[in-house]
Amino acid sequence: MGTFKIEGGHQLKGEITPQGAKNEALQILCAVLLTDQKVTIHNIPNIIDVNKLIDLLENLGVKIQKIGSSSYTFKADDVHLEYLQSEEFKKDGRGLRGSIMLVGPLLARFGKGYIPKPGGDKIGRRRLDTHFEGFIKLGAKFRYNREEYFYGVEAKSLKGADMLLDEASVTGTANILMAAVLAKGTTTIYNAACEPYLQQLCKMLNRMGAKISGVGSNLLTIEGVEELGGTEHTMLPDMIEIGSWIGLAAMTKSEITIKNVSWENLGQIPMVFEKLGIKIERRGDDIFVPEHKKGYEIQNYIDGSVLTISDAPWPGFTPDLLSIVLTVATQARGSVLIHQKMFESRLFFVDKLIDMGAKIILCDPHRATVIGHDFESQLKATTMTSPDIRAGVSLLIAALSAQGTSTIHNIEQIDRGYQDIDSRLRAIGARIVRVD
Ligand SMILES: CC(=O)N[C@H]1[C@@H](OP(=O)(O)OP(=O)(O)OC[C@H]2O[C@@H](n3ccc(=O)[nH]c3=O)[C@H](O)[C@@H]2O)O[C@H](CO)[C@@H](O)[C@@H]1O
Ligand SMILES: C=C(OP(=O)(O)O)C(=O)O
């Protein structure tokens, strides 16, 4: 179990460039299985989850070549389906959430797709019904081995269908979409997730020869095609990382420029931080966060009532930034209610912030009220364990703003989504070391 030691209370300054998007990478990498042609992908983040998925593809027989620091080619012209039945796959397939999206492409191209219950953050129930209900609608037979938590779908051929998803699941939409592109006839997916990463996947599939319309909306129409060809694709910058750095800048009263953020794909992210009173300047495609010498003040609603920040499927605010927003609010002027609607166990990390001196009332598993300190009392350093990726980064930001030296254990949770976080933060002045 790795550990960070962080000496807090120092201002940072400089530029930071976001890595390629983790959650886009997981979709795009699975899509390479849809063709026997070469697919070239750029801006792939070097993080644990992505590397685990690349290993799974390699074990499936995909030929992989690293052609640059973050660029790879993939060729799935000789896929070893027997690996899917192996004990090794039952273990490795569990290692991350994104592995679930291997199922759609495998089912579409080879008539079968299997997966052990995938991993990812333990942040509440993470059901897979939407995925499998979609595959069943396309004509697949479903089986589930309860003892081994092993899921499987099989079909001689898939047939297009109209479906209304029970929820706008991000990985569910990607998975069903990747099956539908090779189904016979037309599929419509209503209540589809439509975040930028899914739009990227649709665009990539269309470049490969798929016929998807409605990209960016919650109604996708897919005319099935016989086969797909190769393509070249570049990942967007990671919007959750961008939001993390905005929060970091404000809470450490630092002047930070976040480079090449792809503004048009940030949705509500800048707006939500602005509601906390954080100044964000657009400079070309960069975000400039000035030093907040006098702190930042949370806005109330027009009628004077307390601000609520909650998550919702895109174009709503992403649940993956709520832990960071909550943490940054602990030093604001004013109060805010954080309502995490999607996940039921994602707010328990506030106990650690409370230990550090933050004023937070956990109302129930989904809601927490934060009463900001306005920097009148600095958070105190402590020892903590990172429970999930975003809580981990939130605690790291809290530690960088706190007085004294904090210790964060279980930093693999952070490394699974943030590339070289310690050296990138050291480059802008953070005092953070990795101790084992
Ligand atoms: C690898 C990956 O891409 N992971 C992301 C993906 O996970 P993932 O695709 O697993 O998440 P889903 O979109 O399926 O659902 C997330 C949670 O929200 C609930 N839900 C979802 C949609 C909805 O309309 N109502 C609702 O309540 C689900 O029941 C579930 O508890 O999307 C989540 C939601 O943005 C993000 O937190 C994860 O980082
Ligand atoms: C919850 C997340 O990831 P995963 O779905 O991989 O657990 C996340 O990226 O915040």
UniProtKB/TrEMBL annotation:
Cited Gene3D superfamilies: Enolpyruvate transferase domain
Key words, A-Z: Cell cycle, Cell division, Cell shape, Cell wall biogenesis/degradation, Cytoplasm, Peptidoglycan synthesis, Transferase
Function: Cell wall formation. Adds enolpyruvyl to UDP-N-acetylglucosamine.
Organism: Robertkochia marina
EC numbers, comma separated: 2.5.1.7
A GO molecular-function descriptor: UDP-N-acetylglucosamine 1-carboxyvinyltransferase activity
Designated name of the protein: UDP-N-acetylglucosamine 1-carboxyvinyltransferase
Reaction catalyzed: phosphoenolpyruvate + UDP-N-acetyl-alpha-D-glucosamine = UDP-N-acetyl-3-O-(1-carboxyvinyl)-alpha-D-glucosamine + phosphate
Family from the record: Belongs to the EPSP synthase family. MurA subfamily.
Binding site for UDP-N-acetyl-alpha-D-glucosamine: R97, D320, M342
Chief localization: cytoplasm
GO CC annotation terms, alphabetical: cytoplasm
InterPro entries per the UniProt record, alphabetical: Enolpyruvate_Tfrase_dom (IPR001986), Enolpyruvate_Tfrase_sf (IPR036968), MurA_subfamily (IPR050068), RNA3'P_cycl/enolpyr_Trfase_a/b (IPR013792), UDP_GlcNAc_COvinyl_MurA (IPR005750)
Pfam families on file: EPSP_synthase
PANTHER family: UDP-N-ACETYLGLUCOSAMINE 1-CARBOXYVINYLTRANSFERASE
Enolpyruvate transferase domain sequence ranges: 7-422
List of catalytic residues: D121
A biological-process GO annotation: regulation of cell shape
Pathway(s) per entry: Cell wall biogenesis; peptidoglycan biosynthesis
